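Example 325, ligand beta-D-mannopyranose.
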Amino acid sequence: MSVKLINMPSLPNIPWEERPAGSSHVLWRYSKNPVIKRDEMPHSNSIFNSAVVPYQGHFAGVFRADNTSRVMDIHSGLSEDGLKWTFDPDPIVFQGDPEVTAFQYRYDPRVCWIEDRYYVTWCNGYHGPTIGVGYTYDFKTFYQMENAYLPFNRNGVLFPRRINGKYVMFSRPSDNGHTPFGDIYVSQSPDMEHWGFHRWVMGTSFPWCSTKIGAGPIPIETSEGWLLIYHGVLTSCNGYVYSYSAALLDIDKPWKVIARAKPYLMSPQMIYEQVGDVQNVTFPCAALVDGDTGRMAIYYGAADTVTGLAFTHVDELVDWVKENA
Ligand code: BMA
């Protein structure tokens, strides 16, 4: 690999499929998508914008499932191969201060291993959407901390290590509705509860991301910078269209953009991305990477209904970002 992965363990059992014959695109979809269907939990209406991590030689995750009352909540799940999942049919119950854990709604989780535990961030209803923060050691017991910010905020995504001694998190300040604006910021914290030193990273830009943007999976540390995959929204005459692409950020000052690709990597083009509870949505929340080969598997929500999987090679993706910046 021309691009070096930093602090990335081996993941020989990463879900994987070779690029289909005849395709030259840097990213390709899993041939058996959607990898998670809408009704794989007893009362689920939809299972989509969800996070997967390596866990004890296999895989674990936190999954957004809206139920058949259309309550939005998050569930844990375990998998041998990252493809076939056993979900906890009951939503996660967090231990913590009842003033903070009181449920209003929870959605769009991300999971990030830092130092000794798996942190979970999600869009947490607390008199408006903000970023909930919790952690688990075993995907059975979950602890909730203070909300990171005041409402209104979404797309809280942690960095996988401290930078200059501080925890770092992306977020996307927003409003109480469907937010027709939004840029990506990073904030820092000494203790994962007090967040400050807010810096602007990047804003709306090319037509595919001209309405709003938000960080997706946990950023990946490489010799060329932090590789950030993020979603972007175009407002068409028929409503929002959610695509995603990638950028490289400075390792020590991740609010500094090194390169940002102009085109999208993926836009809703398959029927399960175009048709569902919300049409035309591809929304990535997690990426697995094999530190040995650079193989990368991206989990993304499709049409707010099901979960898709897509593949790339980290070094090819980094080159693609630079060539298309
Ligand atoms: C955003 C979030 C996402 C969702 C998207 C498209 O505001 O609610 O969970 O996938 O809208 O509906």
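Summary: The longest helix spans residues 314-323.
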